[in-house]
Amino acid sequence: MEKRQRESWGSRIGFILAAAGSAIGLGNIWRFPYMAGSNGGSAFILIYFVFALVIGLSIMIAEFAIGRRTGLAAVGAYKSINKNWTFAGVLGILTAFFIMGFYPVVGGWALAYVVKSVTGLLSNAGSIADAFGGFISSPVEPLIWMGIIVARGIAGGIEKASSILLPTLFVLLILIAVRSITLPGAGAGIEFLFKPDFSAVTGQTFLAALGQAFFSLSLGMGCMITYGSYLSKSENLPSNALIVTLMDTIVAILAGLAIFPAVFAYGMEPTAGPGLVFVVVPTIFAEMGALGILFSVIFFIALTVAALTSSISLLEVVTAYLIDERGMERKKAVYISGTIMLVTGIFSSLSLGVMSDVKFLGVGVFDFFDILTDKIFLAIGGLLLAIFVGWVVKKEDLEDELTNGGTIKFPLFNVWYNLIKYVIPVAIAIVAIMGIISIEQTSLMIFGLAIIGVLAIFSKKL
To answer: Which residues of 144-175 are buried (b: 16+ CB within 10 A; e: fewer)?
Structure first.
């Protein structure tokens, strides 16, 4: 097959915004607040930040390096260095595939709530919880225009979309956060966010924090390898990874400031779980009267933007695989990926309503995708990457890649390398084991591990 000209980012800022757009998604605005609320608030947040800036940043640098070094997406990147490790790349594709199955569903909820905010949702605060329960029984999927954006290609799709959507997200969150922290009684929410109570920290807190770091930064699913493969050789990989990680962290803080001060100001419960955004937040806005409608619209537009940027990156992981490994043209690859996302999303959404009685290995489709990725695939994907980079890839090749052939400095290279080789694999392994044994559905746990085992056994044939 004739090697095609690989697409590339049009500018450094375009890449940074796209990579940040992948990292900054529902993990920050939908998942981060309820994870923080359910795990003790500021103590969880502090541990999360440490994990994000040490383990998460190190893994992101590694993914960028492997992607750019090989010029290939996840599967090809692993296979070109060592065929025995092809399965690790396939696991990344499978992880993105499974997350595609439920992520856009939540994005569809956010898009619907933009409209619902101005069509009566906030008129009766007491009925919002019931309204959400009734709503999620019917699928609303904003996937067609996501597919169109990705189909236009890297420089013409992801880069342009992110350059508009990500700044919009920042502005919207800042507006909501300013309003939230100026509410009477908001001080308790700010204290919840920034005054750690380490007596509440348990092993589960560390498990949740590291899992959130991987989920939030889009690590362990081949996304950052894929994005790195489109980078020019002149880009400073450690610097770019640091910028993306910091931007992701800032958005997480903004999301916390947008939600928790208002939660405490109106006497709501911070441990509301996944329904925090779709039940508690609209209830808060309902208490604000006419102004609440405006802020509700703004908030759910921000949440939709977050879902869109991450869904684009998930599509790109599968799309790049079809282009690199199956020789497809971009539009055909995108249409196939988009169709997969649409079909799995529909089944995921239906599993919360009319198909709620249909179980696979003890859970519905939505939970099937969520549990497998959050508890097994993401952590093991990150673990495999750390072992691969630390023990399989040559140290001199990594140093050459991260210093652009010696033209730029990376003074912390040896610190990073030792972290990747010795410290991070052990840390991730501990968390991965804890996460796996915490799965209540034993058959589902065995199924997830069996998938990885089968991929490893047949890796050379993939």
So the answer is: eebbebbbbbbeebbbbbbbebbeebbebbeb
Q: How far is CA 325 from CA 1, 77, 355, in A?
A: 11, 11, 35
Element (H, E) at 325: helix 290-326
User: Phi and psi dihedrals of 360, rounded to 5?
Assistant: -125, 115
Instruction: Select from 150, 167, 170, 340 the least CA-distant residue to 226.
Output: 150
Tokens of 282: 């609209």
Which tokens sit at 80? Answer: 């070109």
Looking at residue 1, its pLDDT comes to: 36
Beta-bridge partners for 363: 360
**CB neighbours of 124 closer than 8 A, spacing ≥ 6?**
286
- For residue 349, the Cα-to-chain-centroid distance in whole angstroms is 19
Q: Are residues 96 and 341 in contact, defined by beta-carbon separation less than 8 angstroms?
A: no
**pLDDT at residue 162, as a whole number:** 58
Cα-based distances in Å from 374 to 61, 124, 335, 424, 445: 21, 35, 27, 18, 12
Least confident of 35-39, 86-90, 407-411: 35-39
Distance in angstroms (rounded) separating the CA atoms of residues 82 and 391: 12
pLDDT (average), residues 82-98: 90
Calculate the alpha carbon distances from 39 to 42, 202, 454 in Å.
9, 9, 35
- Best-predicted range by mean pLDDT (91-100, 278-287, 380-389): 380-389
Quick check: 25 and 306 in contact, CB under 8 A? yes
pLDDT at 260: 86
d(CA 401, CA 395): 10
Assign residue 21 a region (left: φ > 0; alpha: ψ between -120 and 50; beta: otherwise): alpha
Q: Residue 206 above 90 pLDDT?
A: no
Q: CA 434, CA 376: separation in Å to the nearest integer?
A: 10
Confidence of residue 202 (pLDDT cuts 50, 70, 90): confident
In this prediction, residue 150 carries a pLDDT of 38
3-state SS track over 189-206: HHHHHHCCCHHHCCHHHH
Nearest-angstrom CA–CA distance, 53 and 416:
12
pLDDT averaged over every residue in the chain: 81
224: Cβ contacts below 8 Å, ≥ 6 apart:
19, 22, 60, 63, 64, 67, 218
Question: Residue 462 — very low, low, confident or very high, per pLDDT cuts 50/70/90?
Answer: low
Give yes or no for a contact between 306 and 22, defined as CB atoms under 8 angstroms apart. no
Supply the pLDDT for residue 153. Answer: 33
Sequence-ordered list of residues with C-beta below 8 angstroms from that of 212, at least 6 positions apart, any chain: 27, 31, 32, 35, 48
